[in-house]
Amino acid sequence: MLPYLVVDAILILLFLLEEYGTVVCDKFSCFATFKKALGKKIFYGYASVGVIGLFMGLRGSFTSDYSSYCDIFLDTVPKSFWEAITGYAYQEKGFLFLNKVVGCFTSNPNVFLFLEAFLFVSLIMLVGMKLTDHVMMFALLFVNAGIYFHSFNMVRQALAAAVVFVAISALLEKKNVWFVLLTLIAVSVHTTAIIILVLWPVLVQKVNLRNIARTVLITAIVFVSMDKIVAFVKNFRYGDYSYGLDGGTVNAFVFQLAICAFSWFICWKGLIDVRERKYQILLNCSLLYFMFSALTLSVAQMSRMMYFFSAPMLLLDCEAVCRVHGKYRVLVQGGLIVLLVLYMYVWLSGTGYEPYWTFLQQ
């Protein structure tokens, strides 16, 4: 677990520098000049991308699907674009196209996954840099409570979720055409991203008790009907697919609920104005994240839908944590960081992610 803890330690150090280290940093003239030239948000954004992008990009084949993605890439390299895109019946065409584009420059699958890692991390963090002034808190949430470690294995899903995050940032600015186009690109990487277009009206609905109650009611109805829904879907696709059709763990759900509930509490206290379009959409994403998280208790594969709302939910949580001022600020932020590191440690312990090694060691 040491490599994972080292990454967290670096992110925590950067967070402390961003939030509390202005005076200390300014004493080091070269550091202060560099930071001033780039801008505070850009400096910490690029620093976080460098740390977590490199850690993800260098990962070895210790996850179950790593070798499968290597095989797909190697298969596309010698083919024409048309043959590569049509070569896999159950692989999304956008992802195959990306494989072929990279395959025009290298035949090394490790290089492809290295570049994909930086693309995924960059998309998430660039949007985070744009939408919050607290870049390192968002990075800590993304790594420890988001889909970062899941992306080590779920390459297509994670990349699609990153594109969806960019699409939602366009929706915040009422750029609906860009929202639709970016979502369709995400669908071309992982089909399940179509849920974003289906739930578009929910994303932009006003936040009030009636709409919240309706979301909870729909969640309850879907939960009790999940067996029939799964059977219906398997008539059209994934007929021989059985992995993840049992219920998820309660422990993960409780943690996810706690993360969501904190931001809801801050909104309820009025520290975040949910009448503002940005926070209205982020809060709706948080509610949808909670809805799909609850549904994972029935069918674990519903987490596939949940992941699309993870980054917007964490962005709202980042804003909520940093809206706490006075004597409770350090306590809340410190407590959250400790909780995040503990959750990461417990979640990764005993999984295929431990021990960590790089593809350079293979």
Subunit arrangement of the protein: single chain
**Separate helix tally:** 20
* Morphology: globular
Unreliable stretches covering 5 or more consecutive residues? none
Instruction: Name the helicity range.
Output: over 70%
Cα gyration radius (Å): 21 Å
Share of residues in strands: under 5%
Largest β-sheet summary: none
Structural class: mainly alpha
Number of strands: 0
Give the mean pLDDT.
83
User: SSE order in H/E notation?
Assistant: HHHHHHHHHHHHHHHHHHHH
**How many angstroms separate the termini?**
19 Å
Description:
The chain is mainly alpha-helical. The chain is built from 20 helices and no strands. It has helices at residues 2-20, 22-26, 29-38, 40-57, 66-76, 81-86, 93-103, 109-131, 135-145, 155-172, 176-189, 195-198, 200-203, 209-224, 226-234, 250-268, 277-295, 303-306, 310-322, 328-348. The longest helix has 23 residues, at 109-131. The radius of gyration is 21 Å and the shape is globular. The protein starts with a helix and ends in a 14-residue tail after the last helix. The mean pLDDT is 83.
Give a short summary of the structure:
The chain is an all-alpha fold and 362 residues long. The protein has helices at 2-20, 22-26, 29-38, 40-57, 66-76, 81-86, 93-103, 109-131, 135-145, 155-172, 176-189, 195-198, 200-203, 209-224, 226-234, 250-268, 277-295, 303-306, 310-322, 328-348.
Features:
362 residues, mainly alpha, 20 helices
Describe how the helices and strands are arranged.
Layout: H1 2-20, H2 22-26, H3 29-38, H4 40-57, H5 66-76, H6 81-86, H7 93-103, H8 109-131, H9 135-145, H10 155-172, H11 176-189, H12 195-198, H13 200-203, H14 209-224, H15 226-234, H16 250-268, H17 277-295, H18 303-306, H19 310-322, H20 328-348
Helix pairs in contact: 1-4, 1-9, 3-4, 4-8, 4-9, 5-7, 5-8, 7-11, 8-10, 9-19, 9-20, 10-11, 14-17, 16-17, 16-19, 17-19
